[in-house]
Amino acid sequence: MSARTSRERPSRRPFPRPIAAAGLIPAAAAALVLLLGSPLTEPGTSATPRPGPVATAAAPAARPVRVDIPGLQVSAPLVDLTLDNRGKLGVPDPADRNLAGWYRDGVTPGSPGNAIMVAHVDTPTGPAAFAGLDTLRPGARVDVRRTDRTVATFHIYAIEEFEKSDFPSSYVYGPTKDAQLRLLTCGGAYDPAAGGYQSNVVAFARLVSIQPSEPGIPGQNGPHDS
After folding, report:
1. Of 63, 144, 157, 211, which has fewest CB within 10 angstroms of its CB?
2. Number of domains observed in the structure of the chain
3. Rounded-to-integer distance, Cα 54 and Cα 68, Å
4. Cα–Cα distance for residue pair 205/203, rounded to 1 Å
């Protein structure tokens, strides 16, 4: 049976909340000690088509440096994430609450295909960059600032929650013909005895525009802003 569940979830418990010391996000379905727990492999089939807004034309590749989510009042610098020798995705530094990561060996946000971003939902000291991701509604805006001084704007068209033990990799990571974005974080029940969060929240978004960035916006001048 599918692990997809309703967007409605219980209220978050007060911070701080304990987290697993072994690391906080990669992509391995059984890795409950990690933030994400879903396989990041080349899928054999395309993701299931989903409804959404008509996309704008995709842009040439340019490294993303910052992600802004106005609905969450988030503006977080992006770090490059890669796979380790076990095929698991690295994680943003859990000591930095306002930090997100982009899978650099995948699609650049705004280019044709499916770009992947991940961030923590919380840390021992409080909410992190993707706290509240599950509260966004279809149409919520995500702006990705890039090194070519453009901003790729995406609109979220679906938010779903999946149990880590039954994470649908092809559905989430599968290739797309248009420019899309996936934002991933932890969710669901928190069970310290079982390794932490038991689910993942995934926001599905589609490119709607690419515009020149405004002067003076943090993150527009290079990959190492903080």
Report:
1. 211
2. 1
3. 21
4. 6
Q: Is residue 169 situated within a structural domain?
A: yes
- What is the arithmetic mean of pLDDT over 33-46? 37
Structural domain contains residue 11: no
Alpha-carbon distances of 145 from 63, 155, 168, rounded to whole Å: 9, 15, 29
Which pLDDT tens digit goes with each residue over 55-78?
A: 566 778 899 999 999 999 999 999
Do residues 117 and 182 lie in contact, with contact meaning Cβ atoms separated by under 8 Å? yes
Q: What is the CATH number of the domain that holds 204?
A: 2.40.260.10
pLDDT, tens digit, 9 for 90 and up, residues 78-134: 999 998 888 877 779 988 999 999 999 999 999 999 999 999 999 888 999 999 999
Q: What's the domain range around 169?
A: 64-212
Q: What angle do CA 106, 198, 21 make, to 5 degrees?
A: 75
- Beta bridge pairs of residue 68: 75, 143
Q: What is the pTM of this model?
A: 0.73
**CA–CA separation, 65 and 103 (whole Å):** 12
For residue 185, is it within any domain?
yes
190 domain residue, yes or no = yes
